[in-house]
Structure formats: C-alpha cells, structure tokens
C-alpha cells in the first residue's frame, strides 16, 4: 500500500466486542468492530498511517509464523517512532504460579474450546524472554516487558504488557 494522508493515533487489533481504542480491527462482525478483517492476512491500512497499535488478549490466538507476519505488518503501518502495546498471557508465570492444572491454567494454555468459533483458541504461548528475543530480532527498539496490572482485568491469568518502538 502507498502512503496516504489517512492517520490514526491508535489502532486496536483484535479488540472484539469490547475495544479500548478505535478504530478496532477484528475478524468478528460485532457492532464494536470498525473494520472486519482477518489479521492473519495483514493489516488493512496504508503504510505509515498510525502512531500506536494496541491489542489485549489477541496475540496468543496466532500461530507463531502468522504472528511474525503480523509483526512485519505492524512495522509497515506504523510511522517512524510509532509503538506497539500488546497485553497477553505470561506463560512463565502461568506455569510457575499454578502448580496444579486448573481452569485458569486451562484458559492460558488453550483459550476457549469452541468449535463454532475456532479463532478463540490459543495457538501460541509467549514468555517475556521469547517476545523480547523476537522483537529484537525483528528490529524493534526500547523493548519493555512488564507485569500487567491484574486488578484491572476480569481474568485471573498472569499477564504481561509488551511495549516496543519501531
């Protein structure tokens, strides 16, 4: 895609029915979705059109190679100095803090067992060291992986916030 005058301060990827930001790009066709699109096929925005890409509980729904493709797309649509902020399950913490397999670990590992909506299944696990390695390898800078504020979320899974600059 060519550069355009179209500009977004923040775009949410995979916000589903309860996005934090607009526009919200998601595969589901619910009213809160502004652009219905399968993000495994790219981000349907022009080059260098936004400053920040945000997602919560989204990246674990991608196979590893598909997520690598999405990271390349993130770099394409971000302006120089733009950033990503992704919130996802921290599998290091999930497996260390839950010695017994229970519903919380089950949700971390597999997501939803829903044959009608397979996009709700988890397809990859992420640890702080893995995401830092991947982002560094892909040319991101000022990478910060920190514990997510658990009290602010309705899920009890241990999560991490990932931030990086293009």
Automatic annotation (TrEMBL):
| Gene3D superfamilies, alphabetized | Vaccinia Virus protein VP39
Keyword list (alphabetical) reads: Methyltransferase, Transferase
Residue intervals of the Methyltransferase type domain:
41-84
Q: Which GO terms describe its biological process?
A: methylation
Q: Name one GO molecular function term.
A: S-adenosylmethionine-dependent methyltransferase activity
Under what name is this protein listed?
Answer: Putative methyltransferase
Q: Which species is listed as the source?
A: viral metagenome
